[in-house]
Amino acid sequence: MENLPFLLRPHAQLCPSLPLAPALNSSRTQVTPIPRRRSTRLSTSAVAAKTTLRSKASSDGEDDDAFDWLDQWYPFAPVCDLDPGAPHGKMVLGLNVVAWHDRGAGEWRVFDDVCPHRLAPLSEGRIDDKGHLQCAYHGWCYDGAGACKFIPQAPALGPPVHKNSKACVASYPCVVQNKILWFYPRTEAEYKDVLQRKRPPYIPEIDDPSYFTAFGMRDLHYGYDILIENIIDPAHLPHAHKGLVPKSCMVDNNDPGRYERSINSFTVEYDQEGGEPIKMKIQEESVTGFLCALPGGSTRFTAPCTYQGTPDNKVATAGKTKPWLMLVALCIPVAPGRSRIIYAFPFNSGPWVYKIMPRWFIHLNDNSVLDSEHYLLHLEERKYAEKGLDNWRDACYVPTSSDRMVVAFRNWFRKYCKNRIGWATSQPSELSPVLPKDRLLERYWSHVIQCTSCSAALKAMKALEVALQVASVAVVGFLAVAKGTLVTSTVHRTLVVSAAVLCFAASRWLADFIEKSFYFQDYVHAEH
């Protein structure tokens, strides 16, 4: 089977499972930041950076290649989902940060999400009429460099207290690349020009005008390492997402419950979901990630966040041979037991209808795919924590070639990260209790509120629902008023009553569609 093209097929709208927690922290340790000094205001990342995030030197010498979590670029969000007229707050690597558009410079900025005055979140603020970021609590205003420009409570002719360094907000280096806002989690002066030394991973197909790319994003209640492990595991797709992805094998017409394929004159039986062996070969491994070859293409993990799947079969575009489709997934550590995924399927060949399909419609299936495995991974993470990540190979039985990418990631995480994430701030060492499904699979806060397309669609559908209800009542009222005058026959009355019933039924159907598409829909594996 050409496995990779199957996984990337755009009409399947596949999005490998999206988890919501970053690390299992099986080591039961914390990253403890040094207390801030009152004389100088430092960002949380700058403080945490002064602790030893790398593991202590080990006897095998592996520490020389220890992965530095703070010397990396992290994706914040696709620019298409960022409103330039408002600030946006998120947690990344344990940091609470806020992104906002500096109108004067025409650029996006990323700050610590805390006002120096009384530590209120700046993400709950606004952009004032001068283009400054304004705190909603007391109105302090900041420019694109993080300098305080105005304190309403300070006398106009008094001391310029707003110029004190303690009134400034820590600003992170950031850049828009591949239509995504990235930031670097260090605020010290020596990292101001870090972009000259190191850039985020670049994927040219996303910027290529011959490709169509629709982004998606979802917060997940399982950790970063669980998310990566799941994303790079193609073997789970026909089982965990049954009914949501196409089957990879042809069913025997004489036995609908049995899948067969002829291999070297032998008939081999597969399970009814279409699962089958996947040959994988790890070709490159280093502290920066690994490359894996599999039937139909290859996949690459670039630490810490970027996963790319590229098929071998290509198409000619503008005189050049290019992949017809790719899978790009950015896996973001948020906090212990939480992660975020940003994903896209750039493609330059296929039905034109996918190029005009609204993003919210694409996200309906994407979210169903994520929901179908969310509960499984949430529980799996807690089982891993019970066993301890250092005992992963002993606790898990991974005998087939289909597990090689998962094993490669676990080897990378153990060898270069000591099975832990270098959080930028102090984080709890224990995972939260198991969450109920209605919290795990909720879509509004984890996706809809962060997606401009889904938010707009939800607003429009709610308005249509109200309009249909009003129309049904208005039609009934019209029937009562016009009885014996305009509506004189049984046929007319039947038509008017039918219109009222249809409007009411449509409003009820739409309400159910809204609930399942934008708020919550359970996925029961036994029913698929």
From TrEMBL:
Residues 74-183 form the Rieske domain. PANTHER family: CHOLESTEROL 7-DESATURASE NVD, IRON-SULFUR DOMAIN CONTAINING PROTEIN. It is found in: Membrane; Plastid, Chloroplast. Its main location: membrane. Keywords: 2Fe-2S, Chloroplast, Iron, Iron-sulfur, Membrane, Metal-binding, Oxidoreductase, Plastid, Transit peptide, Transmembrane, Transmembrane helix. This is Rieske domain-containing protein. The keyword RNA-binding does not apply. GO terms for molecular function: 2 iron, 2 sulfur cluster binding; chlorophyllide a oxygenase activity; metal ion binding. Coiled coil: none annotated. It comes from the Eukaryota. GO terms for cellular component: chloroplast; membrane.
